[in-house]
Design goal:
single chain, alpha/beta, two-stranded parallel sheet, six-stranded mixed beta sheet
Length: about 160
């Protein structure tokens, strides 16, 4: 018969943390590449309407965003009931819109100027007269390629 020795003082081996920095930097680089930083911070509350026939915009280089809705503060609380127009990061009036569009167009490259697309994100409670005034101002500015933002409507059977 053989004799077995029982070890009474067994220790758990320590964790090998040598590859931990590599793992952390890999995850960090992944999030840096995948994360999309928002270009424009909306200063108005916008709950876009729903639609059924939607498509995504392919070229994002020549986009100009116009938000139409009620103004909000930094916490997202509605400040006023008047409808405001926001072009990129500043409030504009309908009368100022053609000059501001021309200013935005002058900041773009030549290829982006020709393919400039104005995206209107209007709140679903916005009156159609305000949107029509914005469209007329865009027509004066020569911005004829206009997109309207909406969310996909859930179709139930």
């Amino acid at each position: 018969m053989s004799r077995f020795r029982h070890q009474k003082h067994r220790e758990v081996p320590g964790l090998n943390l040598a590859s931990l920095p590599d793992l952390i930097f890999t995850v960090l680089f992944f999030f840096m590449i995948v994360t999309h930083m928002r270009d424009v911070n909306p200063k108005v509350s916008v709950e876009v309407p729903q639609g059924t026939e939607l498509s995504k915009t392919a070229n994002k280089a020549g986009l100009v965003y116009i938000f139409i809705g009620k103004p909000v503060d930094a916490q997202g609380e509605v400040v006023s009931n008047e409808t405001r127009i926001q072009l990129n990061d500043r409030y504009v009036s309908v009368e100022q819109l053609p000059q501001e569009i021309a200013h935005e167009r002058s900041k773009m490259s030549e290829s982006d100027r020709q393919n400039m697309v104005v995206t209107i994100r209007a709140d679903r409670e916005t009156e159609m007269g305000v949107i029509n005034d914005v469209k007329q101002a865009l027509r004066k500015a020569g911005a004829l390629n206009i997109n309207y933002s909406a969310t996909q409507k859930k179709i139930s059977n």
